[in-house]
C-alpha cells in the first residue's frame, strides 16, 4: 500500500470508513455494530468482503471487485441483468437460516416513525400534507411478517457488480431478522425503474404497494439523521425527492 493516499469514504461522530489502496478500515465507537457486521458476514450465504484484521475499534476489510450497482439520486449505469442478479442474491440471503439476534419490533418501528414525522413537520422540513400522506402509506408496511435474514441497510451503493454478476455486498452492521420487503425496498429506493428487474431476479412475486410503503418509511425515518450528520440541506436529499413524488 506504499504511496496510496488515505480516502475518507464516510466520516461522522458515530463511525468512519477510510480507504487505503484495496483496504477499507472501518472505525466504529459502537462495537456492537462491528460484532453484528462480523457475525453477519460469517453467516451470509452470498459474497462479502474478506476480513483482513480486527483491532477494536477498527475493522479492516478487503475491497470487493467491481463497482457499486448505483448511487441514490443518480441514474444507475448497471444493466437490467445486473439488477436481476442483485435480486437473486437477496433471495439467497432471505432463504438462509435466521441470524440469532432479532430485529426491530413493530412497536419500535411505529414509535420511530411517529417521532420522525413530528420532527419533519415541527422543523418545516416538508409540508405537513407530504408527511401525512407518506406516513399513512408507511404505516401499511407495519403489519406482521414472517422474518427472514435481512441485510438491513441494502442501499444500492452496498451491492457490488462486475458486468452482470454480483461480486459482493458490504456494510452488514444492520443485519437482523426482518421483513424481506424492507431489503427489496431499500435496494430499489430512488430506482423504481429497476424494481421489475430486481423482482424478476428475486424469483417470487411480491406486493409492490408494500415496497412503496417501505420507501416512504425509510425516507421519513432517515431525513433527520442525514441532516444532523452533515449531509447538507434536506431540500437536496434524494429521500426528500422520493417523499415528494410518492
Automatic annotation (TrEMBL):
Pfam families in UniProt: APH
Keywords, comma-separated and alphabetical: Transferase
GO molecular function: transferase activity
Record's keyword annotation contains Transferase: yes
Stretches assigned to the Aminoglycoside phosphotransferase domain: 44-198
Protein's name according to its UniProt entry: Aminoglycoside phosphotransferase
Native source organism of the sequence: Micromonospora arborensis
Amino acid at each position: 500500500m506504499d504511496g496510496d493516499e488515505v480516502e475518507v469514504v464516510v466520516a461522522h461522530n458515530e463511525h468512519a470508513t477510510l480507504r487505503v489502496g484495496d483496504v477499507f478500515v472501518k472505525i466504529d465507537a459502537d462495537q456492537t455494530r462491528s460484532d453484528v457486521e462480523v457475525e453477519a458476514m460469517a453467516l451470509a450465504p452470498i459474497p462479502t468482503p474478506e476480513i483482513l484484521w480486527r483491532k477494536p475499534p477498527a475493522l479492516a476489510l478487503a475491497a470487493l471487485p467491481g463497482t457499486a450497482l448505483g448511487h441514490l439520486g443518480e441514474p444507475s449505469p448497471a444493466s437490467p441483468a445486473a439488477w436481476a442478479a442483485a435480486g437473486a442474491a437477496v433471495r439467497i440471503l432471505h432463504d438462509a437460516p435466521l441470524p440469532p439476534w432479532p430485529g426491530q419490533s413493530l412497536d419500535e418501528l411505529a414509535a420511530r416513525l411517529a417521532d420522525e414525522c413530528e420532527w419533519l413537520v415541527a422543523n418545516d422540513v416538508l409540508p405537513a400534507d407530504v408527511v401525512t400522506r407518506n406516513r399513512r402509506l408507511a404505516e401499511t408496511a407495519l403489519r406482521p411478517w414472517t422474518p427472514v435474514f435481512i441485510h438491513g441497510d441494502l442501499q444500492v451503493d452496498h451491492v457490488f457488480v462486475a458486468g452482470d454478476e454480483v461480486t459482493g455486498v458490504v456494510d452488514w452492521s444492520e443485519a437482523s431478522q426482518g421483513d424481506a420487503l424492507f431489503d427489496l425496498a431499500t435496494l430499489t429506493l430512488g430506482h423504481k425503474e429497476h424494481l421489475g428487474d430486481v423482482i424478476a431476479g428475486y424469483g417470487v412475486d411480491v406486493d409492490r404497494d408494500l415496497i412503496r410503503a417501505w420507501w416512504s418509511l425509510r425516507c421519513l425515518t432517515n431525513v433527520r439523521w442525514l441532516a444532523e450528520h452533515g449531509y447538507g440541506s434536506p431540500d437536496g436529499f434524494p429521500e426528500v425527492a422520493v417523499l415528494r413524488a410518492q
